[in-house]
Amino acid sequence: MKVTSETVATREVQLTVEPDDQTVRRALRKAARAISRYRPISGYRPGKAPYALVERMYGHDVILNEALNDLGNDVYRKALEDQEIEPYSPGEMDITSQDPLVLSFRVPLMPEVTLGDYATVKVEPEPEVALTEEQIDEQVDMVQRRHAEYTPVEDRPVAVGDQVIASISGESEGETVVNRQNSTLDINDALMPPGFAEALVGMETEDTREFSLAYPGDYEDENLAGKNVDFTVTVSTIRTVELPALDDDLAKMAGDFETFDELRDALAESLKARLEGEARSREAQAAVEALVEICEVEYPEAMVQEQLDQAVRNQAGQLAQMGFTWDRYLEMIGKTEDEVRSEMREGVEQDITRRLCISEFAQLEKVDVQQEELSAEMNAMARQLYATYGERASEMLETMSNSGAMMSIYGDVLTRKATVRLANMATGRPVDEHSEEDDDQDADDTSENDDAQDSDPAEPTEEDGTEE
Predict the structure, then answer these.
(1) 87: which DSSP letter?
(2) Residue range 106-136, pLDDT digits in tens
């Protein structure tokens, strides 16, 4: 068997294979016997018709295609061994010539990663978290508002301190940048952009008011930062807000606390844990970006397409939960799937590069995942699925256990562990320091994340049964 190899793209080769004549003849005769078994020829027992007769009746191409079912796989395997190639995924076979028989295989190769001296990666550690009394007061205020009593009123206009339900639209340079229906808003200085709360004061139920305001240049939403927006707001409900007293009764309402001081201490602890987790996350992100800078990565196009397929499936699954089909979504946004995949490509390639660099780092540092860590990850996922899907979660977990999802989960845990190790090395912290990122997910229910009040009319949430 003659085998030649040619590089045709990044981490992709084409193998050209010419099997020896004896092997081809043997495969063709075996194929002819198989054809005459399931398509018997009159006058002959199944599988016993002469080769020449089978070829005359069904043609050489039919016999060759049948022969390639076995011969192609066998030739491909031997060609890989001959060239010492480890494929990323199965190659695509093509018939280059029938006489003599020459086959070609386009084969994607495993990614190649060359990691630089990662010991030189340095990241400035984040400052230690030091809470102020004002920050803790804000957490207490959120808990207090969560347990407030809201009473609809119709005999007076909106005042500072009220809560309203309103529909909001906003345009900037002829483009709709805000479109929210039945948004719940607390009328206070936290509303963005600055001046929004004051603009609503004095409105009555079913009133519509138009006004223009500018978002700060450093606003977190880049689509709104620095823009002057023409707002149209219609108020449908006005509520008075009666806040509970800051005492032991509030502590008991908020959770398993006996005194207000216990509640305040717990809120402070939860906030500190969250802020520390965010700081560690920023350090990790900086460390990974620095690692990528000294890492050379090559991967086949098949890897990109595989990840794009997964990204499309994930997005289609999320849309299905909201009652949309993928085709309907494409119609709504006026794009083809190819256009959406093209938009996703840059992010997918960046993710592939980061994962490959971290994976190489994990291998060099001998980072591994213990069974108990994998079990903990599965338990956390199970709790989330049961909370979201109820009884259907059992079926989903069983499907995951019987599919390739376990390898994906393993990879996620390994990546997370390796990233923490890298960040600790880069910042000079103890390498085996325990990461609190996962622990933050189980923070006390009194965390500010439970608060459902809007701080921005562009980002409303559900409150008291109202719909976004």
Answers:
(1) B
(2) 999 999 999 999 999 999 999 999 999 999 9
Residue 111 has a CB neighbour count (10 Å cut-off) of: 19
Q: Give dist(CA 212, CA 408) in Å, integer.
A: 48
Q: What are phi and psi of 223, to 5 degrees?
A: -70, -20
Q: 223 or 197: which carries more pLDDT confidence? A: 197
Distances (CA, A) of 338 to 117, 171, 292, 341: 39, 30, 28, 5
pTM for the whole structure:
0.76
DSSP states of 265-279: HHHHHHHHHHHHHHH
**Other Cβ atoms within 10 Å of 267 Cβ, number:** 26
**Domains of the chain and any CATH numbers:** 2-110 (3.30.70.1050), 149-242 (3.10.50.40), 251-449 (1.10.3120)
Task: Specify the pLDDT at position 431.
Answer: 82
User: What are the beta bridge partners of residue 235?
Assistant: 166
Distance, CA of 9 to CA of 298 (rounded, Å) = 11
Tokens of 120: 């030189």
- According to DSSP, the residues that pair with 233 across neighbouring strands are 168, 209
